[in-house]
Amino acid sequence: MSEPVELKCPRCGHAWKYSGSLSRYGTVCPSCKSWVPIPRDLRRIPPSQRIRRGVSVSCPRCGHEWVYSGAYLPLIYSGKVVMIMCPACGKKIRVKIKQQAQTTASP
Ligand SMILES: [Zn+2]
Ligand SMILES: [Zn+2]
User: Fold this and answer.
1) 1-45: which CATH architecture?
2) Which ligand is in closest contact with the Cα of 31?
3) Where are the alpha helices (DSSP H) in the chain?
4) What is the distance in A from the centroid of ligand 1 to the CA of 11?
5) Residue 26: nearest ligand to its CA?
6) 11 — alpha (psi -120 to 50), left (phi > 0) or beta?
7) Could you report the per-residue pLDDT of 11-33, keeping only the tens digit for each?
8) CA 58 to ligand 2 centroid distance, Å
């Protein structure tokens, strides 16, 4: 269980109590649907999850977000565009690797 944290959307200024998982890097603004990062000191990302490879995907239709770590992952990492299906609504989504904004110093 995680206690709610106050998040504020940098785009529309909407502030709300986020009570979802903190083991992720951000969430979607309930007002304008843009990506709102969870501040670093509020995140509780387990070390194992940080190492596990995966591509975070968000569905443009239903807003569902998840980390894809399936069979196409090597293709995605090699820069190919891959179609995967949203597990929530079934929409096919084009996925390709995004440049990581922040590169944390490794080991
Ligand atoms: Zn917003
Ligand atoms: Zn969806």
Assistant:
1) Single Sheet (2.20)
2) 1
3) 47-51, 73-77
4) 5
5) 1
6) alpha
7) 999 999 999 999 888 999 999 99
8) 8
